[in-house]
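User: My collaborator sent over this chain with a note saying "see what the structure looks like." That's all I know about it. Can you take a look?
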Amino acid sequence: MSQRLFVALRPPAEVRAALLAPMAGVAGARWQNDNQLHLTLAFLGELDRHGTAAAAEALAAVRQLPFEVQLGTPGSFDTGRADRVSTLWAAVGEVLPEKPARRGDGPLFRLAASVRHALRGAGLAVDLRRFSPHVTLARFPRGGVPREALHRWLADTRLPPLAFRVHEFHLVESRMGVGGSHYAPVASYPLSMT
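Assistant: Without extra context I'll predict from the sequence alone. Here is the result:
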């Protein structure tokens, strides 16, 4: 039996509540529910039990200190056509004492890179898309919706710049069900250098 897996951060309850609050007012949007709110570090897809065990073992070797992130502005991904939108999301930014020399040098990007490196080292295929830290708020039907339909929502929606401490990450199973996917943690990994 296979499992559809990804590696993610789970925002705390008060951050999830802030993300749920503006979810309304866009025709055709399939808004995420509380269970679905997460920040993907790596997507693995379908793995058999051996692959799942290999992923769990590889992730246990990831070492990093806890760090702070905060909600950013809402945005959208297009469908491949600039005039059609497939996804609404909230950006997640790093809270750093000083600006890194290069984009991607902060702890969130390092964690995503470490997770992907560990999984590849275990012989697992990982999604190759560039890491773009965000929490998905809504998805749209295949083909998307016109960008103009979201203009007012994007212009009017402000998320509080809530900061939260990242102290663990999770290997998560995605199960299809009524109302979309349901996410269940398979394993959790505390951040520490030991």
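A starting point for your reply to your collaborator: The domain at 3-190 is CATH 3.90.1140.10 (Cyclic Phosphodiesterase; Chain: A,).
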